[in-house]
DNA mismatch repair protein MutL
Amino acid sequence: MGKIAALPELLVNQIAAGEVVERPASALKELLENSLDAGARSLSVELAEGGVRRMRVVDDGGGISREDLPLALARFATSKIATLADLERAATLGFRGEALASIGSVARLSLISRQADERNAWRIACEGGALTNVEPAALAAGTTVDVEELFYNTPARRKFLKSEATEFARCEEAFARIALSRPDCAFGLSHNGRRSAHYPPENLRARAARVIGDEFAEGAVDVRSEGAPVSLTGLVAAPGFTRASRDAQYLFVNGRFVRDKVVAHAIREAYADVLHHDRHPAYVLFLTMDPALVDVNVHPTKSEVRFRDSGSMHRFVFHALSRALAEPLAGGAPPPV
Ligand code: ADP
Ligand code: MG
C-alpha cells in the first residue's frame, strides 16, 4: 500500500505562507510591493490591532482586470514574469506569484480593483482558500486589499504573534522601509483610526528627515557614484552622527530593502577611520545594478541577495563611500539633493 499523497491546495498554501507571511508586517510588505509594482503613486495603509485584526492597503495603481482577479489569488500565478529569462532580469519587486495566495490561505482576504478604463470596480474574496464569484463593486481606479483576522485558521502561528504594540512597530518598520525606497510616492499609515504617518511626494533628504529624523537628514552626506553596470546613491550619516544600534541602516538593492553582509562590511570599512568601534553609521543607500549581476530569488521574502561577484561589489561600495565621506572634509559644500 502506498503511503504518499499530494497535499490539498489549501494546506500547500498554508505551508508556503509559513515562509512568506510570518507576521502582519510581512503581509504588509507584500501588499505595498504589489502596489508599487502596479505603478501606484499614492499608497495608504489602515491597520487595526497591530495589523492582526485588519490590514487595508489602498493604492492608485493600474489595477487588475475582472478576468485576472481569480488568478491574482492563485498560487504561482503572476503577471510579472513568464520565462526563466524574465526571472533573471526581473525588475519588479514581486515575481513568485505566491503572496496573495499565501495571505488568502491564512486570513480573510478581499480584493477590489478597477482599471482606469473600466466603468466599475470588481471584487473577489478568499476565505479558507475558497474564492467567491467576482462581483461588481464601487472604487476609484486602483486596488484595495483587505486582510482580516490574520492566522484565524492557523492557531499555532497566531500563538507566536507578539503584543499589539510590537506587531504594530514591526508594521511601521516595514512601512518605513518602503516609504524610504520611494520618496516620489505619497504614503499614509494609520493604526486603530489614528494617523501615524503621512508623507507627500518629496525628495530623499526630506523623506529621510521624516523617517529617520531631522538630525540625520540635515547633516547627511550625499553619495552619488552613478555608472554602469553598478551605481550607489543615497545619504549617509555625517561621521559625527552615528547610532549605537543598527536601526537606521537602510540598503536597497534594485529598489528592494535587503540585509547584506558584504555591503554592510564595505560600509563599515569606509567609516573605519571616522567611527568609534561600538557605533554604527546610519544610511539610506540605493545600490542599483544590472539585474543579471544579482540573484534576488534566494529566499521567499527576498530579504537577502547573492551578488555574482561579491568581491567587486565590496570594492565598489567601499570606494564610492570613502569618496563621499572624504568630500565634505575636503571643504567642498555638500551638493544639493
Ligand atoms: P507577484 O507579486 O509575485 O506577482 P502576488 O501574489 O503578490 O504575486 O500577486 C499576484 C498578481 O496579482 C500580481 O502579479 C499582479 O498582477 C496582481 N496584483 C496584486 N496586487 C496588485 C495591486 N495592488 N495592483 C495591481 N495588481 C496587483
Ligand atoms: Mg507580490
The pocket of magnesium ion (ligand 2) is lined by residues 30, 33-34, 94, 99 (CB under 6 Å).
